[in-house]
Structure formats: C-alpha cells, structure tokens
Amino acid sequence: MENSANRFLERLVRGVVGLAGLGVLLGLGIVDLQLGLARPSVILLAVIAATVTWRLTGRALGAWALALGSVVLLATMSPSVTVHEALPFGLTVAAVTLLVIGLAAWRAEAVRAALAVPLLLAGMVLQPLQLSTARITPVVSLALALAGVIACATGMWARMLQTGRRRQAIAEQLAQRTSIASDLHDYVAHHVTGIVVLAQAAQSVAAKQPQAVLPALERIEAAGDEAMTAIRRMVALLHEPGSQVRMTPMGTITDIASLADHFTSGDDVKVRLRIDGDFDDVPIDVQSAVHRVVMEALTNVRRHAEGVRALEILVGREARPDAVTVEVSNDGIGRVGHSSGGGYGLAGLRERAVALGGSFTAGPRTPEGWTVRARIPAGGPR
C-alpha cells in the first residue's frame, strides 16, 4: 500500500515537472519566433526531442543522446548554409540541448553518456560561432559553455546521489539478511538442541518407563514443527529479491514463559521464573533482545552444563533509569559460557545489547554455575 502511494506520488511529481518544462519550452519558442531565431518546425522538433529524452533512461537514453549530439555537431561543422538554416541557433534548441546534457549525465548508461555529453556541449557552443560573426557571439558561446558545464555537473551530482542511495539500500539489505541468518542459527539451534536432549532422555527411560516415551516424542514433534516454521519464514525472507520488509521479532518478554515451560536439561532440574514489571510500552526490539538472552542461555545450559539442579530466570524493570534487566543463572558444572564463533551465541547477544544502549555480561558464579546478565534501556538506544 505504501509502495503504491510512493509510486503514485513519484509519477505525479514527474508529470508536474514535465508539464512545467514543456511550458518553459513553449515560452522560449514564442520568444524565438518573435526574434526570428528559429522556425516553427525547428521549435516543434526541439519539443519532441525534449519529450523523448525525458521518458528515456539507461542505454536507450545514452543512444538517443549520442545520436542527437552527433547530429548537432555535424550540422554545426557542416559548411552548407542550408544545413545551418535547417538547424539555426535559438533559445529553444539551446534549452533542449542543456536538458539532454543534464539527463544524460544523470540517467544514461555511463559509457554512452561520456561520449554524448562532449558532443552535445561542443555542438551547442560552436553553433553561435558558425552562424554569426557579431562581437557578441563569443560571449554567447561562453555563456552556453558555462550553462552546459553546470547542467553536466548537476546531472553527475544527481547520479552520484542516486548511486549512494542504491548502495545504502544494498548495504541495509545485506545487514538485514545477515541478521536473519543469525536469527536462523540461534532459533534452529535452540530447537534442535532441545530435540536432541529429549531424544536422549527418551532412550534412557525407554526400557524402564515406556509410558514416558510418548510424551517425549510429542514434545520432539512440537519442537521440530517450530524449527521448520522458523526455517521457512526466514528462508522466504532471504529469497525475496530487493525485500525491504523487516522481519518481525519472533520472541517477546511474554514468550519467555513458554521457553521456561519447554526447557529440558534433565529430569531433576527445577526451573524458577520471575517476571516483574509492566512491559507493554517496551519497544519490540528490546523485548526481542531480552527473549534472545534467555533462549541463548537455556541453549548453552543444554549443550555445555553438567549436573544442573536449579535454573533461575529473572526479568524485571528498573525505574531510574528506565531499563529492562534479565538474568539467567544455573548451578551446573562445565563451560556453560562457551559459544561458537562467527558472531553468534553470547558474542551476538553482547553486540545486540550494546547496539541498544545496554550492557551484557556472562561468566561463572560462586561457588559453581554460570550467570548470564543483560541490562537494556526500556526505550532502546539513546
């Protein structure tokens, strides 16, 4: 809906600018007729050339500008008087030539624009010298040369501005896709780790407690479905060409309760969850970061902790300064803080927290265990 409105507005602006330019050319044509500088047929051809130039882009515009430049320069340098009479110097022709120079420098294919602009500039500057011997003629040619340089510089500035915006858009897309890839790694790793733990638990109790296998299989199926949903959603975003749609964060503070309910790292692990405060006005990116801290901490417990008996998840909101705090602690033994390279895991969480104006720490606690702690301003980065 927004893209359609933007396209309509762009077309409206282009239409208004085109009509205004056409009005200016017609006004210059009237002046040419009054001063006897050009015939009606030449003015009509100039208006047609301007209309065609305005609608073209890329290679077509470059070829068109190159053809016009060649014709103007050949007609100017020709010794035939009849050719000069067919293409006399006038304000309308000069204005159209400046328009073609500017648009070619802006929107034409680079190589053809580099060839066409000098031809157009030379034809426009030399034409007054060829058609008149008055003393004012060099002044007119100098003024046209200055105007041509300004038109060319304006077009090149517009081209660089457009190129810069295009590069910025590409960089934003790459950053977005990198973020999606990181999310894909973290979410799928979380679910797959849970599946592995559940499968191992089912194997260990299959002989002694067969009735416990079916619930474990049901939880494995649910975790697999969630992982496949995350994969499909993120891969679809990665495959969208030129997509500017930002992926909605998959987790909020409310969803942390679901993470705690589905956590599995042993039959005797006691999970304690406490969420204090009102988080309705907290931005979604802050809530997603808090959710990711809990999810990564639980994934690391599954992977690296041994002998975990108690797990505590605390989420709260500080009043002064306004910030959301999250802490995940366990009493296990092992390298719980280990994370793979590549910018994921705890390193990725630290980068996200810092980007939001907060802090992140992870390390062993006394006498044993591991604690992951983050503090993020409730309003995001300032």
Q: Quaternary arrangement of the chains shown? A: single chain
Distance between the termini: 31 Å
How do the helices and strands follow one another from N- to C-terminus? HHHHHHHHHEHEEHEE
Secondary structure: number of strands = 5
What's the helix count? 11
How do the strands line up in the largest sheet? 1-2-3-5-4
- Helix coverage percent: 55-70%
Shape summary = elongated
Query: What's the rounded overall pLDDT mean?
Result: 76
Give a quick account of the main beta sheet: strands, pairing sense, barrel closure.
Answer: 5 strands, mixed
Tell me the Rg in angstroms: 35 Å
Report the sheet-strand fraction.
Answer: 5-15%
Low-confidence stretches: 81-87, 243-249, 335-343
Describe the structure.
This protein is an alpha+beta fold and 382 residues long. Helices cover 66% and strands 10% of the residues. A five-stranded mixed beta sheet has the order 1-2-3-5-4, covered by helices on one side. Strand 2 (310-318) and strand 3 form a beta hairpin. Mean pLDDT is 76; it is low at 81-87, 243-249 and 335-343.
Topology:
Layout: H1 2-35, H2 40-55, H3 58-77, H4 81-86, H5 91-107, H6 110-131, H7 136-205, H8 213-239, H9 256-262, E1 270-275, H10 284-304, E2 310-318, E3 323-330, H11 345-355, E4 359-364, E5 370-377
Parallel strand pairs: 1-2
Antiparallel strand pairs: 2-3, 3-5, 4-5
